[in-house]
Amino acid sequence: MSRVISLFYRFLDLLLILLLSGMAIMVFLNVVLRYGFNSGLTVSDEMARYFFVWLTFIGAVVGFREHGHLGVESLVAMFGKRGRVICMILSNLLILGVSILFFWGTWKQLPINISMSAPVTGLSMGWVYGIGFFTGGMCALIALERLVRLVTGRVTDEEVAAFAGEHLSVEKLSERG
């Protein structure tokens, strides 16, 4: 099962690379066409914007899995293991609640988004904003899995250290600032 999960996240990494590359290529090509040939691709602005939305929300899931989001690591680092575990439980409960709310909000907004079309491509806006299902669902699953492992005592010391920011070297910490 961990191999399947690992392959899934490798696929997401590849998808992020493709979305960022596609976005950069479309914007660069459009700039060259506009300034060099006084023309342009009307679809490139719109698709680059949609790629950026998907890139951001898929990246949020990958970042959450890797403990890459902002945290109050200086506060958490002052606690012992028990205090850190309590902070992890509270944090994941909050994330679970917000993720469920985000998923539910996407569900409630879906009829409106499906009925609207993008101005240039004609693409249903349900495809653009439907990424909320993926992000809300995946973050909820990750938080739920972490909560189960925290409550059952199966969380590792490395995970607790990662939550407190101790997995980062001084060089990596300076890169984040």
TrEMBL record:
How does the record classify its membrane topology?
Multi-pass membrane protein
Record text on subunit structure and interactions: The complex comprises the extracytoplasmic solute receptor protein and the two transmembrane proteins.
Keywords on record: Cell inner membrane, Cell membrane, Membrane, Transmembrane, Transmembrane helix, Transport
Where found? Cell inner membrane
Q: Principal place where this protein is found? A: membrane
Quote the Pfam families the UniProt record gives.
DctQ
Q: Name one GO biological process term.
A: C4-dicarboxylate transport
UniProt keyword annotation of Lipoprotein present: no
Function, please? Part of the tripartite ATP-independent periplasmic (TRAP) transport system.
Q: What is this protein called?
A: TRAP transporter small permease protein
